[in-house]
Design goal:
- The chain is built from nine helices and six strands; from the N terminus they run βαααααβββαββααα.
- The protein has 256 residues and is α/β, with parallel strands linked by helices.
- Strands 1, 2, 3, 4, 5 and 6 form a six-stranded mixed sheet that branches.
- Strand 2 and strand 3 form a beta hairpin.
- Helix 1 packs across helix 7.
């Protein structure tokens, strides 16, 4: 019998990578060059790790601040960007410590999913992801929570872009629980700020349309030209140390 062909797999990160910089997509997902990490992703992963260990019973609530302090420098080995007002590494450290010092746990919540990996089919390809937290609140509302290290959204458009990821996760939630979440929740832990986005069918449909459109563009793409902005190129891109197309802020200013 012929071997069954595996479906193409796309995550939100993979789709966003293509939209952000096609050359970066070429390096990571076609040429399979993992590259290097960055301080912001390491910071987010570190905080997620502590929250996951707590939620699964591996840490007590009163241990979180101490663990954060003990593990911070090891978990975030990369340098933070310079050129800003103040010490960004110190700022992130202090804001994270304040978050854990004031974190009250999950009283009143029925935890359903913690850092849960999933696959779901869209057309002839598979969408995969990891949900930070799914729970029912004391009123019985189904909530999908995502922890972010951002301090805030610059506009409604930016908030909608971030919510798109959670709307795509709702495909799986609907399949598993038979209903959509009542609320998509973005928890910006550095500012200890929660933004609730009530589930909206039009936004859900838009997210699926965006994913389908992006997959089609990836399949039809032949010109993987660079398109990242200078800050991304210099600080966030996994291939920033060896990318021949990297654009610095100085080069951008000179061109202007």
């Amino acid at each position: 019998m012929p071997r069954k062909q595996k479906k193409e797999r796309y995550s939100f990160t993979k789709l966003s990578c293509f939209c952000n910089c096609r050359y970066g997509y070429l390096q990571r997902y076609i040429e399979n060059k993992a590259g290097i990490g960055n301080c912001f992703s390491s910071y987010g992963t570190f905080v997620h790790s502590i929250l996951e260990r707590y939620t699964r019973g591996g840490l007590e609530l009163w241990d979180l601040s101490d663990v954060y302090e003990w593990e911070f420098d090891t978990a975030i080995a990369e340098d933070f960007p310079t050129g800003f007002h103040g010490d960004i590494r110190k700022l992130y450290y202090e804001q994270g410590l304040d978050f854990f010092n004031n974190f009250a746990g999950y009283d009143g919540m029925k935890i359903l999913e913690v850092e849960s990996k999933f696959d779901c089919d869209i057309d002839d390809w598979t969408f995969n992801g990891v949900m930070d937290l799914v729970f029912e609140d004391c009123a019985g509302k189904l909530v999908l929570r995502d922890y972010k290290s951002k301090s805030g959204f610059k506009s409604r458009a930016e908030q909608a872009e971030y919510a798109r990821q959670l709307y795509l996760y709702c495909i799986y939630i609907k399949q598993k629980y038979g209903r959509f979440p009542d609320v998509l929740q973005v928890f910006m832990f550095r500012k200890n700020k929660i933004i609730d986005v009530p589930f909206n069918t039009e936004a859900f449909d838009e997210a699926i349309s965006w994913a389908r459109k992006t997959v089609t563009e990836i399949r039809e793409c032949w010109d993987f030209c660079p398109s990242g902005d200078p800050f991304f190129c210099s600080n966030l891109c996994n291939h920033r140390e060896d990318c021949e197309h990297k654009i610095s802020e100085d080069e951008k200013n000179e061109a202007a």
